[in-house]
Amino acid sequence: MGWSSTPHDGDEATTTPPPPVLKNTAMASRFQLLEVLGSGTFGVVHRARERRTGEIVAIKCLRASIQDPDGHYFAAEVRALETCSGHPSIVQPRASGLLGGQAFLAMEFVGPTLKHVMKRDRFRRRHTELEVRLIMRQLLAGVRRMNRLGLMHRDLKPDNILVDSRGNVKICDLGLSCSFTTDGGPPYSNLIGSRGYRAPEIILGSTDYDERVDTWSLGVIMAELLAGKHTFLGRTDKENLSEILDILGTADIKEWPDYNGQRLPGGSQPGSFLRHSFPSPREARIRGPPTLSEAGFEVLSGLLRCNPEKRLTAKSALQHRWFKEANPRTARS
Questions:
Q1: Strand ranges of the sheet holding 31-40, from the earlier edge strand across to the other edge
Q2: How buried is residue 9: exposed, middle or buried, by Cβ count under 10 Å (0-12/13-18/19+)?
Q3: pTM for the full model?
Q4: Distance between CA 242 and CA 234 in Å, rounded?
Q5: What are phi and psi of 125, to 5 degrees?
Q6: Residue that wins the pLDDT comparison between 11 and 196
Q7: Of 171, 211, 210, 222, which Cα lies nearest the Cα of 331?
Q8: What is the pLDDT of residues 144-194, one digit of tens each?
Q9: What's the CATH superfamily of 114-323?
Q10: Is 164 a catalytic residue?
């Protein structure tokens, strides 16, 4: 699971458990744990209070010897967060290190994950185009900052995006991030991302990808926000690729220079049907699919290009007219 600063998304009513107690005395002298926000293979995330300052933070606790699935030590995420420190669309680190032999990372406490918010609002309404534009502006700005610093996130999904009390979003969980300037370049690990948000080139086994694996994920998130449901629901990578090609067609991926002619699942038509899922307002029927302006569709379709060489980067997406039409909130990049 992701290291997201949010309570569990379970629907069942449960009794409130007692506050956790830190057995590590060195850490307990610095932080008061208030509740568990999430847990996974590599440790636990808590909402906590720093005793000296009184600030509420999210704190990850795990064994110092644990490595993430890409083979990097816990310190890799710390370095990535510190590298991106100061950007308003990326969660801010507060402290990190070893206390009594236990590795920890304290970050600003933001709020629930975007996944939690979407699940809560799912039966109320879809996100409007203006709301999606505001969210995408912030996410693309955060990804552009990472790219400028030579980083790929490689696991963008609603679980790894936090929403504050004013509706602003922040990217979190940089545990699978990779530096394409200091980590030696390709080949990169192909064991990245979460099913449903993996770019086609990752599903096809590429290890020579670039930062546009992140903008694909943002395109999937944009479609999910507009539609109020996940776009690609395959139970396996093969099923997921089939669903992608059923909507986007096969012509684009076959133009990718690294496509080696392998048989593709699904995708019986070469052309894209994406516009049918997101029609323009003047073409939409009452209670039909979510509408999207021409400018908005240009961004969505530009992010969801199967051929990564033709896919929008975060920088090029932010320069699109869609983000200039309604004066969306600016975010430093």
A1: 31-40, 43-50, 56-63, 102-108, 93-99
A2: middle
A3: 0.86
A4: 8
A5: -170, 165
A6: 196
A7: 171
A8: 999 999 999 999 999 999 999 999 999 999 988 998 887 678 999 998 889
A9: Transferase(Phosphotransferase) domain 1 (1.10.510.10)
A10: no
Using the predicted structure, report yes or no on whether residue 318 has a pLDDT greater than 50.
yes
Contact between 221 and 158 (Cβ < 8 Å): yes
- Residue 287 pLDDT level (bands cut at 50, 70, 90): low
Residue of 202, 204, 194, 201 lying closest to 224 (CA atoms): 194
**Which one of 70, 155, 164, 214 is the catalytic residue?**
155
Question: Per-residue pLDDT tens for 206-225?
Answer: 999 999 999 999 999 999 99
Q: How far is the C-alpha of 327 from the C-alpha of 325, rounded, in Å?
A: 6
- The one-character DSSP state at 158 is G
Tell me how far the alpha carbon of residue 85 is from its chain's centroid.
18
Q: Domain 25-108: what homologous superfamily?
A: Phosphorylase Kinase; domain 1 (3.30.200.20)
Q: What do you get for the CA distance between the two ends of the chain, in Å?
A: 28
Amino acid letter, 93: P
Contact 35/20 with Cβ under 8 angstroms?
Answer: yes
pLDDT digits (tens, 9 = 90+) for 224-240: 999 998 889 889 999 99
Q: Are 145 and 40 in contact (CB under 8 A)?
A: no
Provide the residue ranges of all domains of the chain, joining segments of one domain with +: 25-108, 114-323
